[in-house]
Amino acid sequence: MEGLLLVLLNGLVYGLLLFMLSSGLTLIVGMMGVLNFAHASFYMLGAYFAYTISVGLGFWPALIIAPLLVGGLGALVERYGLRAVHRHGKLAELLFTVGLAFVIGEIVPLIWGRPAVPYRVPAVLDFPAFALGGINYQAYRLFMMGVSVAIFAGLYAALARTRLGLVIRAALTHPEMVGMLGHNVPRVFTLVFGAGCALAGLAGVIGGNVFTTSPGMAEALGAIVFAVVIMGGLGSIPGALLASLAIGFIQTASVTLDTPLGVLLGRLGMAVDPHGALAEITIARAAPAVPYLLLVLVLVVHPRGLMGARAD
Amino acid sequence: MPKIAAHLRGRSWLVVKFLAAPVFAGLLFAATHAAAAEVVQIAYIDPLSGPFASTGQLGEEHLRFAIDRVNAAEAAGPGRRFELVAMDNEVNPEKSLTLLRKAIDGGIHYITQGNGSSVAFALSDAVAKNNRRDPTHAVVYLNYAAVDPGLTNGKCNWWHFRFDADSDMKMKALASYLVGRADIHKVYIFNPDYSFGQSVEKAAIAMIGNQRPDLTIVGAERVPLGKVTDFTPYIAKMRAVGADAVVTGNWGADLTLLVKAAADTGFNATFFTYYLGARETVQAVGMAGKGDAQISEWHENVDAPAIDKMAAAFNAKYHENFYYWRVVDMIDTLAAAMKEAGSTDPLKVSRVLSGMKFSTPLGAEEIRADNHQLLQPMYISVLAPDMPHMFPGVPLGFKTIKRFDAEATRLPTTCSLKAPD
Question: Which residue of A has its CA nearest to B56?
Answer without folding.
Answer: A114
